[in-house]
Amino acid sequence: MKKLFILLFSFLTISAHAEAAAEGGEFKPGDLIMHHIADDYTWHFADGVTLYLPVILIDNGTPKVFSSSNFYDENHALVPYEGYVLNHGHIYRADANGQPAADQSSLLDFSITKNVASLFASVILLFAVFLTIAGSYKKNRGKAPNGIQSFFEPIIIFVRDEIAKGNIGPKYERYMPYLLTIFFFIWFNNLLGLMPGGANLTGNIAVTLVLATLTLLITVFSGNKSYWSHIFATPGVPAWLAPIMIPVELIGILTKPFSLMVRLFANITAGHIIILSLFSLIFIFQSVAVAPISVAFAIFMFFLELLVALLQAYIFTLLSAMYFGGAVEEHDHVGDHGHGDGAH
């Protein structure tokens, strides 16, 4: 099945190349790659299989709802529709020439894009999986786990014992719902993104920004007196250095979620780009001889991405737990002023 996913990815690439060649155009790997990793108002699964998503606009307080298919003619060329135009992945008010108008004020876009639809699908999948597991626990109370429950139970226990308990300490239970949610949300969406036609949800900087912001907010609001005193009155640091150290510590609070955001975004997006780039080499060199090498490396990268999908979920959850642990930890600086950072 995994190799089938790769073959379907290859089919998508070949179809795009054949279409460009039929129109007398040049194959542009950059356009192909961006089409697959960027958000869109349509969801393209395979050649000829496209889901047109609903467009929801609020224009000067007036709601406008219609299908994104209205932006395309019979040749799939972009056309204006009811005074709006789709340009470079965004919807604008159109001028008389069908181009984005100068005035775009009071135009709000709440459309269901490919990433939003994928988000809804992943949430439904998560609810379905874990409600099924919860039902199994109620049904098999006191019995050995079986079925899907036996697969997920060791993973849940691992998150609890190795990530939450080990990094947060006695207060770990209050953070378990969040840690389990982000772990499985990131893991599931990483895997869904590797499927043919899958959306690059966790490779979207807006999504990783929200996840990182949630970790930041939980960390900040969990901070105890010891946590904040360590920031505003770092033990062992002379008072005259406080104007320097306080901004440094505050910047450090922000750089931690920033690194979470960029790490997940960059790793997932890079994996998609590499796989599609390897397939593109076949058409760039226009040689069948390149195909075996290109496909072999692409298959290797695909299996590596399956590992990365799990690894990135683990890293994000682990670092979040470490930040929570640092916020609730009670520091004892008596007689040991030189080890304030060592507690972390």
UniProtKB/TrEMBL annotation:
The keyword Protein biosynthesis appears for this protein: no
Species the sequence originates in: Pontibacter amylolyticus
Gene that this polypeptide is encoded by: atpB
Signal peptide start and end residues: 1-18
SUPFAM superfamilies on file: F1F0 ATP synthase subunit A
UniProt membrane topology term: Multi-pass membrane protein
Name this protein carries in UniProt: ATP synthase subunit a
HAMAP family linked to this entry: ATP_synth_a_bact
Transmembrane spans: 116-137, 175-195, 201-221, 264-285, 291-316
Gene3D superfamilies given in the database record: ATP synthase, F0 complex, subunit A
